[in-house]
Specification:
The protein has helices spanning about 5-15, 25-30, 35-45, 50-70. With about 70 residues, the chain is mostly helical. It is elongated and about 50 Å long.
Length: about 70
């Protein structure tokens, strides 16, 4: 499989499962790929580690949630 296509599929999976427990082990097992190989090609294709990508996505999603559902103070 093409590396870019694989990374794109993994990114889609991460975005769809942001609320789940996402780890290098669980994602690499889901896609039947060595976690070491996966970590290396993900960084080469995206320029950031899998952990940094997941963290950034979760922060972005939290910011969107806060903007769409602000807590009103009385």
């Amino acid at each position: 499989m093409d590396r870019k296509k694989l990374v794109d599929q993994i990114i889609d999976h991460i975005i769809q499962h942001l609320d789940d427990d996402l780890s290098l082990d669980s994602i690499s097992a889901q896609f039947y790929i060595s976690k070491y190989h996966f970590s290396r090609i993900f960084k080469e294709e995206t320029g950031e580690s899998i952990y940094a990508f997941i963290k950034r996505c979760k922060i972005d999603q939290s910011a969107i949630d806060m903007k769409l559902n602000p807590i009103k103070e009385s």
